[in-house]
Amino acid sequence: MAVRWRAGFFIEIKVGSVKFLLDNWMLVAVALASGLALLLPVLTQGNGLSLAQAVMLMNRDKAVVVDVCEPNEFARAYILGAKNVPLAQLEAQLPQVAKNKSAPLILVCQSGARSARATALARKMGYENAQNLSGGMKAWIAASLPVQNA
Fold it and tell me: Are 49 and 104 in contact (CB under 8 A)?
């Protein structure tokens, strides 16, 4: 059986596809919404560590946690064992706080924005395992993970 191609074959497929989409617009909308719902957590997480990853690094690999918030923010609530080094003083004080540049280093702030900048700076300083805590202290507290007050 030989297959014969007609000149209008592509147009018929295109018209048929558009007709299907118009007839089943709700099905298409549900498929797009479910796809977006699956991608949203991946897109919003960013490049930082998840809370679970951070806890595992702290427990298994004895990661050094550095809070880059200002001292008044740090005094309100901080992760157990975290050391406070404000972002403005990071370059000068980080070598005293984290002596081993190959050890895991978790940088945290209130929302994750300042600690992302601090992570980039720490990597430039040679801390190859420096990572940002995604969501910062807000996410940590929202997950009811342990905090300490000064």
Answer: no
